[in-house]
Design brief:
Elements lengths: L12 H9 L5 H15 L13 E7 L8 E6 L5 H7 L23 H8 L5 E7 L2 E7 L6 H4 L2 E2 L3 H4 L2 E2 L3 H9 L11 H10 L2 E7 L11 H10 L4 H6 L1 E6 L2 E2 L21 E4 L3 E3 L5 E3 L10 E6 L16 E5 L4 E6 H4 L9 E6 L19 H48 L40 E3 L8 E4 L3 E3 H5 L2 E3 L11 E5 L5 E4 L3 E4 L3 E9 L9 E6 L1 E7 L2 E5 L3 E3 L1 E6 L4 E2 L2 E2 L1 E4 L7 E3 L4 E4 L3 E9 L7 E2 L4 E6 L13 E4 L4 E2 L4 E2 L9 E2 L2 H5 L2 E4 L4 H8 L5 H26 L10 H29 L5
Parallel strand pairs: 1-8, 14-16, 18-25, 18-31, 27-37, 38-42
Antiparallel strand pairs: 1-2, 2-7, 3-4, 3-7, 4-5, 4-6, 8-9, 10-13, 11-12, 13-16, 14-15, 17-20, 19-23, 21-24, 22-23, 24-25, 26-29, 28-34, 29-30, 32-35, 33-34, 35-36, 35-37, 39-40, 41-42
């Protein structure tokens, strides 16, 4: 059909102006747009600013009675007349690229102007000084009016358009004066950049709206701006400083978004490549590469140690999926939109990097991507990956909740363990004074008996059982329990142990070592760093321990064969050669053996092997997973545990009751795991040597009561107390029938039963008189 067209498209000017600016609602959104524009101006096809000069300064000034508040951004670009002419056009899709053809951010030419148009009562302008020329153009007029939205040179063409100037310093001095900032007060690298380029741009607005009595909440505004999607690339590519009322913020350091501590065990971001074809909501496959014309994208999942939506101020704004292409941010969506009511998702956030989203899915304002088949397909894929990670975290949290119960039971057990000592012999070979064979046992010679030991309440210091002047060497890929190596103790000012104090471990360089699951140190990469402990909620720190991580090239074990009598220990030396040819025998490695019975031997991190059960096995040591480049000894050490003709001695001190899954096995330095095939009160040969008993929480009996602890804690306390009573009775029985030595003769079961019943009457009744109130109320044992 024929048509005679109008000479040009007609738009209602004010209606169009309102439409293209209404998406700017807050100052952090506007500042994000200013920062994005500054970043783009620095690129080679624009001002071509050297990397070392890519800096900017956010300027904030409250109203002081004589002048209104104002907000400005100083950068080193130096806007020219050409820049002003392109800036003046609303809705210009080529505002940033200027036809350069470079693969860069596509813009709509509205964001920065929309901020200046909508969110200031007074004038808003852009001032550029470059090549000894000054250009100033901006907006002035009633808010949200067509008059205000029509840009013009300020104060007029003759004084604001390509005006020759004698001194850029004089112009900068005048521009900074309203902010109470002088040139020599700017950060040193900003001064250097301006002096080198003899150019600058200041975009500013006077009388910002939505400020109470002209006061700008500087700290809050800065943090919101840094969290904004459109600030992301800018903050990555330039150094941003800030001033408020003439005073530099952040101690004069560049601003940066606060890091989000990752969820323990999920410290490394998880990257998933987006499939080339992905189904949308209707099951139709969508190309994520625009039929092979764009590169494949990826989804990067990150975790947070804190519940993000609950941390309203800092983390909730960042609990989102951010969408970006190679050159620009195109918005975000809340995680809750993609995976509503998913357990564990409160600890996950993500970034989608997909070139195919531009230009069709880039919406006005870039608040969120346009809806359509491609975003549907991508969101389905992202949601699937978030759900999978959220489930892992949820499972971990359930375990951690169990761990919290375990910590509570550990504290209960400590009280019961001290209580039981009142009913044990206090002298002779079974008492608290003996130290056992070779000084074994949990009790130190200079430590008072547990039944009269006093504990502290207020932490004062942390002491380590490791000489802090010695370097701890670890093979890369090795994970070790810090507590068993460094043996920290929290003491009060009188030197008493403070058992209730909790500590966190820290590493000075996460690229060398990382703290995992609270009490493991993982050697990540070659280098040296320091680790230390700190009492939770206090500034109290332990001495720092220097760690040196080696990249292991090979491991040699000596001797190759070992025969160990039951209950005795021998050491296998691991000589480590690193990738630089250095050798040492004091490098901590991971150790393992290959017997089906995991309890045949017990191995410490230093290679000491204790024969625990009769049998044979082979032992190796190494660093990392062999399937992914880890290095282990090529020739294993063959170990045979033989019968011991000599009597195995009990460790000294009062016998100690520990919890599986919580207590450290002194024979290995690791947490002793429970075993459903072992008794509830469990003691191996190595445990006897260390005078330790285990309350095996994985035994069917203990597991039944432990799982119901949350429903009825009195049921659990009754069971726990009864096991302590049983342990005391067994200790007495063992002393009676082993103290006779060679004089002991085989006897009738009736005599053993009579002795058992005697102790049950004498000891159990006396103990339960004290335990009844504890079981019912949980009050302290008296």
């Amino acid at each position: 059909m024929a048509i005679e067209r109008d000479r040009r498209i007609e738009f209602h000017e004010l209606g169009t102006l309102t439409s293209v600016t209404r998406w700017i609602r807050t100052h952090d959104e506007g500042l994000g747009e200013w920062l994005k524009n500054a970043r783009r101006a620095y690129q080679p096809d624009r001002a071509n600013v050297d990397e070392g000069h890519r800096v900017a300064v956010l300027l904030l000034k409250d109203s002081d009675g004589n002048s209104p508040a104002r907000v400005g951004l100083l950068d080193m670009g130096g806007a020219t007349l050409e820049d002003m002419d392109r800036w003046s056009m609303w809705q210009d899709p080529d505002a940033a690229g200027r036809g350069s053809g470079l693969p860069e951010e596509e813009t709509q030419g509205n964001g920065g102007k929309a901020y200046m148009y909508r969110l200031f009562h007074g004038p808003a302008c852009i001032l550029g000084v470059r090549n000894r020329k000054l250009n100033r153009k901006g907006f002035e007029g009633p808010p949200n009016s067509l008059e205000r939205g029509t840009p013009g040179f300020m104060p007029d063409i003759s004084a604001g358009r390509d005006l020759p100037i004698a001194s850029w310093q004089a112009e900068l001095r005048l521009a900074l004066a309203p902010y109470d900032v002088a040139l020599d007060e700017l950060p040193r690298e900003v001064q250097n950049a301006i002096r080198a380029r003899e150019a600058f741009t200041l975009v500013e607005g006077v009388g910002p709206v939505d400020t109470y009595k002209g006061r700008i909440p500087a700290d809050d505004l800065v943090q919101k701006t840094l969290r904004h999607d459109q600030s992301t690339l800018a903050v990555e590519q330039l150094r941003l400083y800030a001033f408020h009322n003439g005073r530099v913020l952040n101690g004069g350091r560049p601003l940066e978004l606060e890091s989000i501590a990752p969820y323990l065990g999920f410290e490394t971001p998880i990257v998933h490549e987006i499939p080339e074809l992905a189904p949308d909501e209707n099951g139709v496959l969508q190309s994520t590469t625009l039929t092979g014309t764009r590169p494949r994208g990826r989804v990067i999942l990150y975790t947070s140690r804190e519940n993000m939506p609950n941390a309203y101020k800092k983390l909730k704004p960042r609990w989102k999926v951010t969408y970006r292409t190679e050159h620009q941010m195109i918005g975000s969506k809340p995680v809750s939109e993609l995976v509503p009511t998913t357990p564990g998702s409160y600890f996950v956030y993500a970034t989608v990097e997909l070139s195919a989203l531009e230009p069709d899915y880039v919406a006005l304002g870039r608040i969120r991507p346009n809806e359509g088949p491609l975003t549907e397909a991508v969101d389905r894929f992202v949601a699937e990956k978030i759900r999978s990670l959220a489930k892992e975290i949820s499972d971990r949290r359930r375990h951690e909740q169990d761990q919290q119960s375990l910590d509570e039971v550990h504290e209960e057990n400590r009280k019961l363990d001290d209580f039981k000592n009142r009913f044990l012999p206090s002298g002779g070979p079974a008492g608290d004074g003996g130290i056992g064979e070779g000084g074994k046992g949990p009790k130190d010679k200079d430590e008072p008996p547990a039944n009269i030991r006093e504990y502290g309440e207020v932490p004062e210091t942390i002491v380590l059982g490791w000489d802090a002047t010695q370097t701890l060497r670890i093979g890369r890929g090795v994970k070790l329990r810090i507590d068993s190596l460094l043996r920290p103790k929290v003491l009060d000012r009188t030197g008493r142990l403070v058992p209730r104090a909790k500590i966190d471990w820290y590493s000075d360089d996460r690229h060398v070592t990382q703290i995992e699951n609270g009490d493991f140190v993982a050697a990540i990469g070659r280098g040296t760093t320091e680790i230390w402990a700190q009492v939770k909620g206090t500034p109290i720190q332990s001495p720092r321990v220097r760690i040196e991580v080696w990249i292991v090239d090979h491991v040699l074990l000596t001797p190759r064969t070992l025969e160990i009598p039951l209950g005795r220990r021998k050491q296998v030396i691991a000589e480590v050669t690193n990738d630089e040819g250095n050798r040492a025998t004091n490098v901590f490695l991971n150790w393992e053996h290959d017997a089906d019975d995991r309890l045949i031997v017990r191995i410490s991190p230093t290679g000491w092997i204790v024969g625990n059960r009769l049998g044979r096995t082979s032992i190796s040591a190494g660093a990392g997973d062999p399937a992914t480049g880890g290095v282990w000894a090529r020739i294993r050490a063959e170990v045979t545990v033989l019968p011991n003709p000599e009597e195995i001695e009990r460790g000294g001190g009062f016998p100690q009751l520990l919890l599986t899954g919580r207590g450290t096995d002194p024979a290995t330095g690791e947490i002793r795991q429970g075993d459903p095939d072992q008794p509830t009160l469990w003691q191996e040969v190595t445990d006897y040597q260390n005078n330790i008993w285990w309350l095996n929480l994985d035994s069917p009996e203990a597991a039944f009561f432990f799982q119901r602890r949350g429903e009825d804690i009195r049921l659990w306390r009754g069971f726990h107390a009864q096991k302590v009573v049983d342990m005391v009775i067994q200790v007495h029985m063992k002393e009676v029938f082993t103290a006779q030595g060679d004089a002991e003769r085989p006897d009738l079961w009736s005599r053993h039963k009579a002795v058992l019943e005697m102790y049950q009457v004498q000891l159990a009744q006396a103990m339960w008189e004290k335990l009844q109130n504890y079981v019912l109320t949980g009050e302290e044992l008296k």
